[in-house]
Specification:
Blueprint: E1 9-14, H1 22-32, E2 36-41, H2 48-55, H3 59-73, E3 79-83, H4 87-101, H5 110-113, H6 132-135, E4 148-149, E5 154-156, E6 166-167, H7 173-179, H8 181-186, H9 194-198, H10 209-216, H11 236-239
Helix pairs in contact: 3-4
């Protein structure tokens, strides 16, 4: 592909067997001439359930990988994107605040300005929704920036969240997109529960809705693989940090 002048990207699922090999994976992508490296963070639904017990990385490892990605991306020579890792938007903002406090002002690579990093899915088109472009610059895009249509015509918020919003044979897609109660709930951060519901980063992150569903059965529940404790849940002394 490279010799033919065709741009290509490399996708890799981050799991327990390769979580410590991300620098080598990035080096390989660069050496092959890939224009992008996309990291997929496992969602324990569908076939992912079978491998989650052995292959799911810990919440602490999520933080490590996404912080590594933030630093690696600053090189700017290849696009990096994390799929199903809405935490990245929170981490990138935290890191930028820390850098400013330390007097560090780094020019952001073009890929960071495009805000393509943590959106929950390998793609995503605004689709005509009034808030679609805002959705494209936040974490989980399920039902806000993307929808999934199965081969049978069922419409889901994304390919990883098996909750049906409607059926294309029974109702026009546009009507489902605009009127589905399921989609409406996903577009309302105030309906989020647990730590996500009170988190100061919920407008840009919101947690992975599919992962919450797969782990807890509640698609509006808190992100199970996030180590961040919202300020409102900390003690008075901790909240100052």
């Amino acid at each position: 592909l490279r010799d033919a002048g065709i741009p290509f990207q490399i996708n890799t699922t981050v799991a327990t067997h390769n979580v410590h090999q991300m620098p080598e994976t990035l080096a390989l992508a660069r050496s092959l001439g890939a224009v992008a490296l996309h990291l997929f963070l496992l969602v324990p639904v569908g076939c992912g359930v079978e491998i989650a017990e052995d292959k799911q990385i810990s919440a602490a490892q999520y933080e490590e990988v996404l912080n590594w990605m933030y630093d690696a991306e600053m090189a700017g020579d290849i696009e990096l994107k994390a799929t199903c890792a809405p935490h990245y938007f929170r981490i990138s903002r935290q890191r930028q605040v820390e850098e400013r406090r330390e007097g560090i002002f780094r020019e952001r690579p073009a890929s960071m300005h495009r805000q393509k990093h943590a959106g929950g899915h390998p793609g995503g088109h605004p689709g005509g929704h009034a808030n679609a472009m805002n959705a494209m610059t936040k974490g989980c895009l399920a039902g806000t920036g993307v929808a999934f249509v199965s081969h049978r015509g069922e419409i889901f918020p994304c390919g990883y969240l098996p909750l049906e919003a409607g059926h294309i044979r029974q109702q026009a897609f546009g009507d489902i997109w605009q009127e589905s109660p399921l989609f409406a709930s996903l577009r309302d951060p105030e309906q989020l529960g647990g730590a996500c519901g009170v988190c100061e980063f919920k407008m840009v992150c919101s947690g992975c809705r599919a992962r919450a569903y797969g782990m807890t059965g509640d698609y509006l529940g808190e992100e199970p693989f996030c180590t961040y404790v919202p300020r409102s849940l900390r003690s008075a002394d901790e909240a100052l940090v």
